[in-house]
Amino acid sequence: MERVISFKDVSWRRDGQNILSEINWEVKTNEHWAILGLNGSGKTSLLNIVTGYHFSTTGNVTVLGNEFGKTNLPNLRKKIGYVSSSLEKFSQLLEQETVEEVVVSGKFASFGIYEEVTDEDWKKADSLLTALRLDYINGKTFNKLSQGEKRRVLIARALMCDPQILILDEPCTGLDVFSREEVLGVMNDIVQKHCHLLYVTHHIEEISDVITHVLLLRDGQIVASGPKQEVLTGESLSEAYKMPVNVHWEEDRPWLTIQQKKFSLS
Ligand SMILES: Nc1ncnc2c1ncn2[C@@H]1O[C@H](COP(=O)(O)OP(=O)(O)OP(=O)(O)O)[C@@H](O)[C@H]1O
């Protein structure tokens, strides 16, 4: 399959307002995208269309070869993993579960295990914990983990059903620099599992070498999209962030600075 996601002239209207306008976007095989934009620029709305929780008002959406309107959404959603920063609100439900139980529950898309778990499932959960460098917490309950460990367990949980697309929605929010680098470091392992990453962030320095492409949104419209080196320029980001900024690269990672002389809060 050449195209993983295709948006053609997609708009999404709510309360008489265009939340997304004329989105033309394609994710191809072996591409991994970061989605950037200010608060309210439309990132979550776009992802809700990818997962079939919103229907576009106009335009055509195809995800993993399924054209929306003609497809079985529950089946499609099984192929899409979603790790949201707000998922941790729900993680209270998982507090007393062991990390292995939390990971296995991803197979059933439930919080808690209400179906039969096979030996193979437990083995798979163990190997995912190993892939996410979490062997050392085997047997611990979820409530005893650090924020960074919890995030990685939730990523392992999302991988339990072999998603073809993995959405990581601000996975490093609230993490210290060390924990953030640990989360970023496991992305290579995820890519080796042949799933396509959609990585939402407010911090361009989280765009590690695994990410190949960037979609830049402003007020529900695309400012720029394409290979990251072409999109992550001072010019495009200044337009998206509505303030003058510079980008510099260090070892294939971008960093943002604000042009202080031209920017004032007053
Ligand atoms: N169901 C809805 N009904 C009406 N307006 C909505 C709805 N969902 C989102 N919006 C509006 O659409 C705009 C884009 O919201 P969205 O959550 O997609 O932005 P975002 O880029 O994900 O923001 P953030 O970075 O804060 O998470 C906002 O102005 C929001 O208020």
Automatic annotation (TrEMBL):
Its main location: membrane. Transmembrane segments: none annotated. Keywords: ATP-binding, Nucleotide-binding, Transport. CDD domains: ABC_cobalt_CbiO_domain1. GO terms for cellular component: plasma membrane. The keyword Ribonucleoprotein does not apply. Pfam families: ABC_tran. It is found in: Cell membrane. Gene3D superfamilies: P-loop containing nucleotide triphosphate hydrolases. The keyword rRNA-binding does not apply. Residues 5-244 form the ABC transporter domain. PANTHER family: SKFA PEPTIDE EXPORT ATP-BINDING PROTEIN SKFE. This is Iron complex transport system ATP-binding protein. It comes from Fictibacillus solisalsi.
